[in-house]
Write a structure and sequence with these properties.
Blueprint (H helix, E strand, L loop, with lengths): L1 E5 L1 E2 L1 H18 L4 E5 L11 H9 L4 E3 L10 H4 L6 E2 L13 E5 L5 E8 L10 H11 L8 E7 L3 H10 L6 E5 L9 E2 L5 E3 L4 E2 L11 H9 L15 E8 L6 E9 L15
């Protein structure tokens, strides 16, 4: 099977790019499963039910979140209605929503998606390693799931790399999200798990992490807030990671980063196009 994981969708520019391109990407690359991080989709902070439904309608099979999961207060309510919306699994017991889900791919495979939040420079939640361990033990690769995709929403590269090796051979892929800057270390780890430290964002890269540079610069220079952060509105680059998964083992055969459009990638990379 072939899966695609798209990075944090930031604001209207990021949404527009994903809405326009995802249906074509699914068809062009014969994608069986698509997961999208949507925690910055609503003005850069959180997600609304309308935006969630739009992402699902254009081809997302699952939408993950992160530290901004509940910035839009309505999410506390509608997350209970949407099984395909995942918040970090290591939130305290009783938090609305779910942190993992088993979904059916286009090819009929059962895909386990896990969303988990890091601890370094993040809110203090339960241990992400132990939280993921419990889920993988309960629904293992080729035991309960044909493929396992993990979105590790974390700040520190070292913590993300540690999670990659922690799950190597037990997950199909581990992608880092949150920092909005795509790294160049995509690879298949020794035991067969595809990994990247951060898949980047789907947003305008002529920005500071997807935000118009004015207010971030002001706060760095003066330490005095002058206004709110506003998402940049220029052409967005779609960033993500594609993974070819072996049907027999559930492990990655190959992986490649996707950079499409905007200032980061003016042309589409031609990878895995069927003749």
């Amino acid at each position: 099977m072939r899966a695609l994981f798209l990075g944090d969708v930031v604001g209207r520019a990021g949404r527009r790019a994903v809405f326009e391109e995802l249906p074509r990407l699914r068809k062009r690359y014969k994608l069986d499963f698509v997961a999208v991080n949507g925690e910055n989709a609503a003005g850069g902070f959180g997600i609304t039910e309308t935006i969630l439904q739009e992402l699902l309608d254009v081809g997302a099979d699952a939408v993950t979140l992160g530290n901004h999961a509940f910035d839009q207060k309505e999410a506390l309510v509608f997350i209970e209605r949407h099984e395909r919306l995942l918040r970090p699994i290591n939130y305290p017991p009783g938090t609305p929503g779910r942190g993992a889900g088993l979904f059916k791919a286009a090819n009929g495979a059962d895909v386990l998606v896990i969303n988990v939040l890091g601890l370094i420079f993040m809110p203090e939640l339960d241990c992400p390693f132990r939280a993921v361990e419990r889920e993988v033990e309960a629904c293992g690769l080729k035991l309960g799931a044909d493929a396992i995709l993990v979105d590790f929403h974390a700040e520190a590269t070292s913590e993300k790399q540690a999670m990659g090796y922690f799950l190597d051979g037990r997950a199909s892929c581990v992608v880092g999200t949150h920092t909005h800057a795509p790294t160049a270390d995509e690879r298949v780890l020794p035991r067969g798990t595809a990994f990247i430290s951060d898949i980047g964002m789907c947003g305008d890269y002529d920005s500071v992490l997807g935000m118009d540079p004015g207010e971030p610069l002001n706060r760095f220079l003066t330490k005095i807030p002058r206004g709110r952060f506003e998402p940049a509105t220029g052409p967005a680059t779609i960033s993500g990671l594609a993974v070819d998964i072996d049907d027999a083992t559930g492990l990655a055969r190959r992986t490649a980063g996707l950079r499409l459009g905007g200032v980061l990638a003016p042309t589409e990379p031609l990878f895995w196009v069927e003749s």
